[in-house]
Structures
1.
Amino acid sequence: MTWIHTQLQLKPRPRGFHLVTDEILAQLPELKPLRVGLLHLFIQHTSASLTLNENADPTVREDFEGHFNRMVPENPSRYRHTDEGPDDMPAHIKSSLLDSALSIPIHNGRLALGTWQGIYLCEHRNDGGSRRLIATIHGEKT
Amino acid sequence: MTWIHTQLQLKPRPRGFHLVTDEILAQLPELKPLRVGLLHLFIQHTSASLTLNENADPTVREDFEGHFNRMVPENPSRYRHTDEGPDDMPAHIKSSLLDSALSIPIHNGRLALGTWQGIYLCEHRNDGGSRRLIATIHGEKT
Amino acid sequence: MTWIHTQLQLKPRPRGFHLVTDEILAQLPELKPLRVGLLHLFIQHTSASLTLNENADPTVREDFEGHFNRMVPENPSRYRHTDEGPDDMPAHIKSSLLDSALSIPIHNGRLALGTWQGIYLCEHRNDGGSRRLIATIHGEKT
């Protein structure tokens, strides 16, 4: 049995949906020896989130940003929590609609993602800065 | 400690929300010997998803389909990613609003679901075909 | 390796979003000896849910309630499943949009939450009563 915690830091990104599979995998050489297991990714913030979605066409990520802005509009008259700017309360709501964590199977040292699945960092603030993740790797070695 | 990966194949279903608890359990005899553990179900697609909800009244699943179609409308003028048809981009968004994975406690060889909880396959494409899941079972035997 | 299941009971709360981190931690002394691990919280209901979000300003929770009521309106003409009252079908939808489970890393005997992260019980029924959770703790002792 292997249990590992690692802290990952994602570089700052503008508001929007960003494909970060490669940036995350580059920081997780510990996956390699595992025959079977799970990778748990956890973002320690309440205004950015993680999801899995289409990894090929960049317009998918643009359409995500457009949809979430329509579904959770920046309309200060709707909210009481407005001190940190009009993008703040919508960012909190978007991050709970998506998720603060992902669990992905590990199979023979690699993530068992489908062909079209990639990891998105969903940055909901205009200026969110670098984001911190805790990666928990657990499983069985070969 | 037990760690098992199994690949499950769900039969093709029309667009909509479908109760699949029994179809999944029939493929997981490995749950039986576990005293305590977790079942992780992971769908390897970006246009179908998994969720837990009411397992008795079929109109609940119809109301889910109606609500998600209103909340994520098939309006091509809203999206740039439209090459694969008007149901494609909404399917990506719905699958991230719901989830690509579920973790359910295993207790004395059975899933510790509440009385009214069942596993839904949420098929967001008009013609999604058979869907592939990875089941990860880990826990302790009696 | 440690594997523990505990059943938690949350006291009844009115409809809305409620910070329950302390109520949950008070029932989980078993976290303390773990050096590394994961806490899995699972709600055994289909009309209440769990999420992580801002733990300081109570108006954030009020804005959540307002947003979810707009996004999933209590409009009986939209739904077929209406026998249990106008708040029932929206409660099912809200609970799948948020989530029935949370996984949080355990590090040196404590939850590795970010500074601003707290656990919300999202009570979507007008009169939901006490809610039952299964906590699964697994990890490695020091």
2.
Amino acid sequence: MSGNVSSTVPLDVPPDQRKAFQERYDRMTGGKGRLMLFAGDQKMEHLNDDFHGEGIDPEDGDPEHLFRIASKGRIGAFATQFGLIARYAADHPDVPCVVKLNSKTHLVKTLQAEPLSRQWLAVDEVAALRDENDLDIVGVGYTVYLGSEHEAIMLTEAAQIVHRAHRLGMTAILWMYPRGRAVPNEKDPHLVAGAAGAGACLGADFVKLNCPDGSDISRFKEVVRAAGRSKVLCSGGSRMDERSFLERLHRQMEAGAGGSATGRNIHQKPLEQAARFCDAIYAVTVDRAPVHEAMRLYWGDPGA
Amino acid sequence: MSGNVSSTVPLDVPPDQRKAFQERYDRMTGGKGRLMLFAGDQKMEHLNDDFHGEGIDPEDGDPEHLFRIASKGRIGAFATQFGLIARYAADHPDVPCVVKLNSKTHLVKTLQAEPLSRQWLAVDEVAALRDENDLDIVGVGYTVYLGSEHEAIMLTEAAQIVHRAHRLGMTAILWMYPRGRAVPNEKDPHLVAGAAGAGACLGADFVKLNCPDGSDISRFKEVVRAAGRSKVLCSGGSRMDERSFLERLHRQMEAGAGGSATGRNIHQKPLEQAARFCDAIYAVTVDRAPVHEAMRLYWGDPGA
Amino acid sequence: MSGNVSSTVPLDVPPDQRKAFQERYDRMTGGKGRLMLFAGDQKMEHLNDDFHGEGIDPEDGDPEHLFRIASKGRIGAFATQFGLIARYAADHPDVPCVVKLNSKTHLVKTLQAEPLSRQWLAVDEVAALRDENDLDIVGVGYTVYLGSEHEAIMLTEAAQIVHRAHRLGMTAILWMYPRGRAVPNEKDPHLVAGAAGAGACLGADFVKLNCPDGSDISRFKEVVRAAGRSKVLCSGGSRMDERSFLERLHRQMEAGAGGSATGRNIHQKPLEQAARFCDAIYAVTVDRAPVHEAMRLYWGDPGA
Amino acid sequence: MSGNVSSTVPLDVPPDQRKAFQERYDRMTGGKGRLMLFAGDQKMEHLNDDFHGEGIDPEDGDPEHLFRIASKGRIGAFATQFGLIARYAADHPDVPCVVKLNSKTHLVKTLQAEPLSRQWLAVDEVAALRDENDLDIVGVGYTVYLGSEHEAIMLTEAAQIVHRAHRLGMTAILWMYPRGRAVPNEKDPHLVAGAAGAGACLGADFVKLNCPDGSDISRFKEVVRAAGRSKVLCSGGSRMDERSFLERLHRQMEAGAGGSATGRNIHQKPLEQAARFCDAIYAVTVDRAPVHEAMRLYWGDPGA
Amino acid sequence: MSGNVSSTVPLDVPPDQRKAFQERYDRMTGGKGRLMLFAGDQKMEHLNDDFHGEGIDPEDGDPEHLFRIASKGRIGAFATQFGLIARYAADHPDVPCVVKLNSKTHLVKTLQAEPLSRQWLAVDEVAALRDENDLDIVGVGYTVYLGSEHEAIMLTEAAQIVHRAHRLGMTAILWMYPRGRAVPNEKDPHLVAGAAGAGACLGADFVKLNCPDGSDISRFKEVVRAAGRSKVLCSGGSRMDERSFLERLHRQMEAGAGGSATGRNIHQKPLEQAARFCDAIYAVTVDRAPVHEAMRLYWGDPGA
């Protein structure tokens, strides 16, 4: 096997699925190994908090808003729950999807009970949806709460999901989040580096992390190194202004990030604006464009 | 696939079941996409409290009362447990049924332990009952207590039940109820909107909710929007006078509700009266009739 | 399907098992729809407390005593654990048996931990024992502790056991017992009525209950009505004098009970006396004999 | 089926396994229905406490010591874990074995947590080991902690293991031990009688109990009667002098015990002495020899 | 079966896998029955603590560092998680691997909750990875926390993993670690001996232990004896100077250890140095070389 293939296609992808895996991987990373993920699993994770209220465009209240953005903007993949994909993908067949296989609400806080989020459906059911409808489902996603007293359950489900995704020619993205009474600081870079390495041990192709912002390069480099060949996706987090967002992302990409994962910062905008912000994020993430170019895309002035 | 079909038939319904799914969906919604659900799972959920006592007709003490009403009144579907359907449906073969797949008693209160209700039987067993006896089982139902510490168990069972129902050509209704120590106000409209969106993520065709009464349209619209293409069924709740009941329902339907789910307000009445109240609710829910017309149906004066 | 059959044979009994089911049902109810159940699961439920001590015949210490009584007396069916049936039924092949599928000891009290009793063996294993040895196993039994914090586990097992018994042509008896911290009064008639209805929802053919004694007919009628077509079996409970026992049972049968379930009041007697008491109970339960006739049977003076 | 067979071979042994079951039963009981069990599961149950220290022969530190004794001494069967049998039985192919299917360490005391010991491997895997290597595996063993809050788990596993052993032509021995916060006196004879009956309900061929010492015959007879056709094996317990040991055993056998189960009192001795003590125990247990004869065997003076 | 084979190949290895098992066993033990294990599962067990920081070579931050060492140094086998092997083994195809099947983070301390680490993937999935890619996967590994309140879960998984590994022709290594509230001193030699014997009961080919350092020979001999034919691997533990490390190991090997398991003491060094330290450890472990010779290897002066 050539070195190039080996670093992308893990060995648990069976030989007859390696070409399909590589093609999906290339499609979602623009052939450049960097992933712009539009993360849209918050209707379960945050209930309606991210979709209704001050500063949120009314269009965002409708689940289809997510698909419209994913269809119109430039993205690597759109991550959301199976139920929404089954409901809306027929009208948005061009969207590359990642099926987020577990989700929980934010109702029970960590102070009340240790976090636990469990697998909803089998990877095989995802593959069947994909093949039966000729959908562009490129991967699956799963959240692990490292440091939760229920960690053992999620580690097992994660390992099995990653492996089964590979068997079926799909990529696997792990949301690696330290959380629980045992975790005083979820964003400590050394701990995030540990989460990155843990994701690698689990076989993830991509690990979504609360990345250090890249202004302290050395701390972020620890994270990227720990992930090894698993690519680090920097979570977008809560709402912030667009230029600052892109500048932070640019620093993260410069420092070795393998991609970005953005939710609220995209979908709380009206459709056109949201789609153009996808274009901008994609440019920084995949094309490694400078921020001023990306901002022109966001302003709808690509030809400048 | 035509846009019309796609918005009704989710993609996880296999091609050879799509026609059957659409027919069941149309039958239960009167071809109008609105569902009048006669909810009759309270013999487990509330034990005998809803069926015996002051202001409850003695006929209601017999489980068959529910089937007699469902048979005589105009309904979209009647939801109850598998055991009752297996026992009574042979004598009431015309009743369109939804098999409620989980139920718990109300004995253990939330203050004592976090709510948990688990799946009793497989969807495949429902389909076998349906096919073997040529019953008109149009769907399955399941309750999720969002915000319970046992939420993860119910989210997984719900997602699998919805998916398996779709595989077998049936619709899925989720009772989405925020409940537990983490939920101070179960009927907060913003939280109910979150529950609606959560039901959509789980792939539900219908989500049964404690709807805002529609007098504050904006708060209810948040709920309806959050559900997207999953239809919102407004729970009837505790006993109230018929006109007020229908007026509230009318406001809810005007505000975008996808249907109604009524139990005690129907079955605590004697048979004839109960059946006529079904007619009235059906008229408001499915035919979008004005309340005064519906009240005439309830009075047994349809020709007026 | 004729109305007569439909009310006895639930629809989840497959067509090719309906005749066998009906025959078993008729055999255990003497063709009259009323069941005299000899309940003999106490060696696990009460350990040796019911079988050794003051006022208990020494013969009762031997497990075979139960089979000898079941063989010699007139009974509808004898309920006990699989292990005992496998060990003794070869020598008592005429005994109609109900395999009690769960049991717990009484060592852990409700104050210490919420009650939980789980399924031991599959219904299919019962059917195999039945068919391989040509035994007269007419049904299976299972206890549900409603109101226990572990209620969800037992509701699911109960629903599945009832259904699987039906698939294999056998009846299902549920011991429906409210118990746990949430249940201050296990014998409250309204609660017992709830338990009866819950048993009906689970699909039970018979529900074994702590029945009101029938002296207050209205309270007992609530129970019987709530059970619907599921027959109510009145538990015999702790030891009492024979005439009082039969009088109470007679009142219960008059008030609509579907049968009786008696353990200690039978097996703590020496064999001959125990067998004659079976005859007496059977007479009141199935033949609806008056108490004085039944007492003559007990005295061994049937011809009087 | 003849009465003789029926009392030994339970009906869940399939017809084509009954001869094999009977032969194994006869072999392990010397054709006399009484079992001398050499119990050697303590390396897990007591870790190294029974195998190293004051008064323990150094040979006992090596796991093979157990097999050497079992091979050299006269025993009915040797009970130990699967892993040891797989490792040593090839060199001791003549040893009749019982695979102990669950075990726990004694590290967590009852005061800290309720006792729980779970099944390690399937009975089918035992049968495969037996058949593939032509080993003389005559049965399986399992411990139930009655009165533990985890009792339900162990009752289910026990019932399934007994049944599956019977399906595969092997005997089943249950270690029935009341233990947990709910059990103030584990050796109360009435409670032990309850444990005996519980073992019978679970279908055990033999129940290993903390037997009363037989000096109070009436209390021990309650135990033996409660077990019925399941044979009572008296646990040897902690180290004591040989004559006292044999005298107690003799009383127990006289009082109706079905056998003995001895561990430390055998294996803490050097090989020759241990083997001769097996001979002595076997003589008392199976041959019903008087103690003075057995002591001669122990002294190596059988011809006397 | 010859004595030689029987002591190495357990009987649950099926006949058609015995040759493959023996070859793997010989390859990983250099044909001498002693194993030098390079333990590399710490990216999950200790997150990034062992891979970044003071005194740790920067190369160690990259997961591939482990594979480079394993490829360049002389080792018996390299133990790490499935995900890393699937990602890196294509570029390091010569490395003999042991797939560590469970792992947990160190975030939740014993004081907060009892330790639990669960199986991630099936042994069959390991065998498929091995065969599909012609990898040199010689065994699997699993950690048991004896004395944890969750001990029962891990004992069962361990027994099943060992057995399944044997079925598929692979060796099994158990990390036997007493841990939990019930364990005041995890390194007490008598307790470690108990852990060794427990590993033998579970069928392990090798048990990895916190060995006494061998300076008190008698205490270590208890450990080695208790393990019987299961080989004792002495854990390397935290960082120490090379000569002291090798001297301790030499004493342990002299005292009967079956091998060594070293992690941090190898991989925190730069590649060349790490590889040479592997050579040194291998020499002491497998070749039984004296420490001064091993140190020459470490200094890169093998010809001396």
3.
Amino acid sequence: MRTNIMITISTLLSLIATPVLSKEVKVTSPNGEIKVTFSDEQDQLSYNVEFNNQSVIDDSALGLVFKEQAAFADGFKITKVEKSFNYSKWEQPWGERRVVEDNHNEVIISAVNAELNNAIYSIRARVFDDGIGFRYEVPKQDNYKQVEIVKELTEFTLADAQNSKAFWIPARGWNRYEYVYNETPVYEAQHVHTPVTFKTSNNVHLSIHEAALVDYAAMTLNQRRPGKYIADLTPWYDGIAVKTQTSFKSPWRTIQIADDATGLLNSDLILNLNEPNKLGDVSWVNPGKYVGIWWEMHINKAAWGTTDPNAPHGATTENTKKYIDFAAKYGFDGVLVEGWNEGWDGDWFFNGDVFSFTKNYPDFDIKQLADYGAKKGVKLIGHHETSGNVTNYRNQMQDALDLYQDLGVEQIKTGYVADGGNIKRIDDKGIVRKEWHDGQFMVNEYLFNIEEAAKRKISINTHEPVKDTGLRRTYPNWITREGARGQEFNAWGTPPNPPEHIPMLAFTRMLSGPMDFTPGIFDMGFRDQNFQQNGQGAKINRPQTTLAKQLASYVVLYSPIQMAADLPENYEAKMDAFQFIRDVPTDWEQSIALDGEVGDFVVFARKERKTERYSGHDWYLGAITNEDAREIEVSLDFLESGKRFEAQIYRDGDKANWINNPYDYFIEKKPVTSEDVLTLKLATSGGTAIRFKALN
Amino acid sequence: MRTNIMITISTLLSLIATPVLSKEVKVTSPNGEIKVTFSDEQDQLSYNVEFNNQSVIDDSALGLVFKEQAAFADGFKITKVEKSFNYSKWEQPWGERRVVEDNHNEVIISAVNAELNNAIYSIRARVFDDGIGFRYEVPKQDNYKQVEIVKELTEFTLADAQNSKAFWIPARGWNRYEYVYNETPVYEAQHVHTPVTFKTSNNVHLSIHEAALVDYAAMTLNQRRPGKYIADLTPWYDGIAVKTQTSFKSPWRTIQIADDATGLLNSDLILNLNEPNKLGDVSWVNPGKYVGIWWEMHINKAAWGTTDPNAPHGATTENTKKYIDFAAKYGFDGVLVEGWNEGWDGDWFFNGDVFSFTKNYPDFDIKQLADYGAKKGVKLIGHHETSGNVTNYRNQMQDALDLYQDLGVEQIKTGYVADGGNIKRIDDKGIVRKEWHDGQFMVNEYLFNIEEAAKRKISINTHEPVKDTGLRRTYPNWITREGARGQEFNAWGTPPNPPEHIPMLAFTRMLSGPMDFTPGIFDMGFRDQNFQQNGQGAKINRPQTTLAKQLASYVVLYSPIQMAADLPENYEAKMDAFQFIRDVPTDWEQSIALDGEVGDFVVFARKERKTERYSGHDWYLGAITNEDAREIEVSLDFLESGKRFEAQIYRDGDKANWINNPYDYFIEKKPVTSEDVLTLKLATSGGTAIRFKALN
């Protein structure tokens, strides 16, 4: 039973109103290392950020531009300042850690334009030790009742742009978030999605993102002048960014700041800026692990549809039973089945209206399978692929969710496969409109799906989503999502995910929230079984990793649900390695990033959370590297001193390399304590996965 | 006296109405090498293009999306086809050639959507031997009276994208068109301005652009899928692309096609698609050459304003007289003076409202100088720098143009210095709106300026313009423009224009129309007079060329007005080299690109047009190269056979190189005829300029 525990030291210290003369407002982090200064001297509100007394964000403008009314830009003067601080702890029903600390100083700055009939807006900013967040709050006021925001003027002017590196994916592209990450000088990162991560010449790491994206357009960043990014909101089909009315609040614009790379990972900034759980009792949200009828379609052994002459229908009653048996035998909680419903035989990519979300194919007896699974303690995981035709989905959503509820399905993987900008909806005049996955329309549409699912005690795993902005705090049934290149790109992507992909994700995508990456592929030879002998390992589609790195990924890439993605027979052929996947939990008492550099390598340690299944005593470690083999020394001082553990180490063998010897793995066990230091030897695109089994 | 001469063989061969069953419509170039096929089979109009029986443009969609009404996309069927052809010649009052051939096959395809109340639109396409143009024509119809276009669906799907190179600049950036050109695989050219040039794996050269951009947004290209570009119209501040009403026509979308690089240069496609001259007698438009008070400000020897303690005001009566004397002595027609008017002492970049276009500074006696020049046959060239504050300019434009007309000023250089997207206008409610230089608003604003100038018999040279789309045919007083990185970037740019810049421009920017590049810098040492000795030639701001390349640029970069950009004393120090600039004309009977490769080198031959000053017998040649020195064999068979010429050759010396020996030039003269072949030896970033003086 999970309950929320709040330990409040003091929520409000002071409330100060400052006279009109004040031109600068400063607010610092609790530890004093981050200082934010707001000012109205530039005739437009602006801010800057210092870290350890050096500028990281130079003077950057704030403001909003509307279609009808005059902009909130020039002529706004600070008229009121309210300061407060917060120190509290709160508990997550599931997550990377159970207890989260929220320690920040806050300021609310109100600014008025006397020449615009006293038009007014506020900036609320919170400064934590791990970064800052600020948002616009616009109260109801004459002349700004209904507003259409065409542009947001928020800037992020990188102080060290000339010498900094950027780690980024391009924004507003056809492939949404599914791009290989780039590492370039800042100046080459023109138009980017968030999270976007920067590393300055003195190793300061920054990551810009947003929190609590609700009823607003997603923010991308566009480099308008060298080093100066400006918010670039994803528009509706008609070019407007946000259609709203006062009073309204923007999402929090966030800047994580750390003096090293792992400082970005040991942060709860995004969660802390989100609203608390509003669903009440969420004991029906269950972390766990699953298998499924999915990978076989991506490697062309089966088909989603029933009429492919070259590939049998994957989603059959018989095949599903096989997976349920496998899941039950090896302790998996769910079986995902894709291709169960009518519509896959049509031209679904271009015309998703063909999908039914209530009618199964004749060879998939959904009721029988739900019962079969229930008897064995395994649940069916639902699948709603919309192919971006959201009106078709909307029209069936209630019935489809009711159907699953009746069948005891408690998780659904949704999909919105469509090019960026090509989500199809029918408006109230019956006219087709095309929207972006991260425009305001879809931001609301995804959340509607979450809310409807919550009414039926169903959790959602969104594929082709809008980026995560921490709403899992407010809606704990929004358990995970895709929103980056996942394992499937290793089946057919051009190119497959490169060796640096996961070390890149760890410091970018993973700062936004959990990812359903679906690790755990054991057979790399599905395109060419002889790839090792004929030296073709780098040229075919396959995961560009060693097998040990696949194991380590379960610890490195956090998600409350994790898939063992491969076919059952590939696990049964390597039961020793598979043991790690069987053991690893997906819910944590605590997580610590121990070491790493963006795009190079990362080491995580996590302590399991106590549940019926897990004692709550064991720790797990995952270390992965990019194309460079490396040795990493890891101190085990995160373990509780005085306790003894058996380290069950799954590592790359001495001759392992990802290209033609990915299967060389080695398993060893040895007693360890918190006094020990391990030297991890990672092969090229390799990894180490460790279970620290508590002995006392 | 220039008059338009039309030689029409036949303008209309046939008018055929084709029945509704027709699904494909084919139209070819007169020589049969280019074949365009339109189709409605995809349930949306589409087209493709073959060249010499190979696909160059694969199936590409057509259509328009509106804010209110249903889109012109799916459901349109071809109902009517009209075919015709044209063979004519017409004369330009000035230009690269006097007589232009217009030889094309045309088709007008009408398409109707029965389920949208028979909504209808047409595509008019013309296919020439040097490429194609097509445009949308939307007649007046119920339900589509007032329309706001939010998106154009026109695609350009490059058939050989995977193996093609792109030569491009990024679109929608802060620096408008002023970027160094990129040469990359197509897949890296995400969002580009036009003209954009491609080179396929079998040397087919394509360049995509538009013609006759009037009352519409400019088109940029965005790569939506690998190799598939879609039109990306530059929006109004509120996100709408085009605000118009039926009936309307879009600009022509153009694709130049050639089997080699120089085929792109020997083309009049853009001009041929524009409307004929509507200004009537334009004998007051005078090609010529000018000098001016301009470069000295860019190299910090003088200032535009009057209060800079480090630099004297450039635009003084005394300094201008010096330039008028120089111009008169050496045969230049005009003197440009920047900084003559009040406003340069304020914060003009951020607040251009400070500019007056009628009040001169006290130390600039404009009336006296106009008279002084008139007596010597030299005209003042006006200057209107708006700094992007177009309402301020509009409010003064009539008075400012009248003033110049009274003073006998017949050319004005205008300027719109402001970041992309930051043109400032005040709407009719008094609200500030920010627009793009190439959005529909500015497209109309620039043309208004042209039309108002024409009423006063004034010609316009637009800096920070919208791109050229051939409107000089319709408005021959729109003589030239900037719209790319010009010479000024060599004074202070980061970086200066690289050695390949002019060979890049020749095959991209220059396909759109003339450029006021302002060549002719003789002194490369204005940042460091000792750069040659201390080996810093590549590290300072200066033209990254030899001196001979500066001379050759007058022939390579076409413009009806050309500046001798340097300070008078630098020309007087090298009178032998300066002779070429004194001789070279700026108006041509004929132009032929003889050789070249995109970004590498180019060779042009041009024959002078007969005027009062020029006999009409001489030819000129300009050859320039990028960072690679090269030898180019040039056959002189473009010269009239049987005539004798003295070739006056200005070339790189044997030891010349751009980095530390740019001044090594050599002048020789020798008799030649059309039988001769010259071997041109170009240094690294070097050039050769030749005047072929007719002897008989």
